[in-house]
Specification:
The chain has five helices and ten strands; from the N terminus they run E-E-E-H-E-H-E-E-E-E-H-E-H-E-H. The protein has a five-stranded parallel sheet, sandwiched between helices. The chain has a three-stranded antiparallel sheet with strand order 1-2-3. Strands 6-7 form a two-stranded antiparallel ribbon. The chain is of the alpha/beta class and about 190 residues long. It starts with a strand and ends with a helix. The protein has two domains: about 1-30, no CATH class; about 30-189, 3-Layer(aba) Sandwich (Rossmann fold). Helix 1 (about 35-40) crosses helix 5 (about 170-189) and helix 3 runs parallel beside helix 4 (about 140-150).
């Protein structure tokens, strides 16, 4: 079995851990999810693709979580003009391309995998800087696309640092990431 060494790549992307296998001289990069989660939470604005009025759905629970963390998230849901969360009505946007300030917005995605890929493309084209793919919203292709198109700013899967049994989830891992990003977020407000 080849020997593997792990080192932090400080010259190119500090959010990437580089693994080099000496016998084949191959280098692969694996995102650091803790750093990506901190980057995500440092954004002054949050949007939620898949936001819902239904309290049983994670699109509702995650939207409510952001409200409890003093964010005013923007709901994205093309199938309804508004959602109601915590007895307050929020007008929805149809897609990430409708965001007012996409360059200052992180996007939580709680949609089925077949919709997630299109949401990711729209978010990238709009200029969204960070995305968080909730468990169940992606397969291997969607996660790989997010990691490629949002380098160092795509959260999802089972990368190092999650305490959840289903992978990186805002409801489980968000509070820690928010604490770590607090000073960066305050500077951007």
């Amino acid at each position: 079995m080849p020997a593997t060494t792990r080192s932090q790549n400080k010259l190119s992307n500090p959010t990437t851990t580089t693994t080099t296998t000496s016998t084949t001289n191959t280098t692969t990069s694996k995102p650091n999810m803790q750093t990506a989660a901190r980057t995500f939470m440092s954004s002054p604005l949050i949007a939620v693709a898949g936001a819902s009025s239904n309290p049983q759905k994670f699109g509702h629970k995650i939207f409510a979580w952001y409200l409890s963390q003093n964010y005013t998230p923007t709901p994205i849901n093309p199938s309804t003009p508004s959602i109601k969360v915590q007895q307050k009505t929020f007008e929805t946007l149809p897609s990430p391309s409708s965001l007012r300030e996409p360059g200052k917005t992180s996007l939580s995605i709680i949609t089925p995998p077949e919709i997630t890929k299109q949401i990711l493309k729209e978010a990238r084209d709009a200029g969204v800087k960070a995305v968080w793919l909730q468990p169940g919203s992606f397969g291997a292709d969607e996660l790989a696309y997010a990691e490629r198109e949002f380098p160092g700013a795509a959260v999802g899967g089972f990368g190092d640092g999650t305490v959840g049994g289903e992978g990186w989830c805002v409801l489980v891992d968000g509070e820690k990431a928010l604490r770590e990003a607090k000073s960066e977020r305050e500077e951007k407000l």
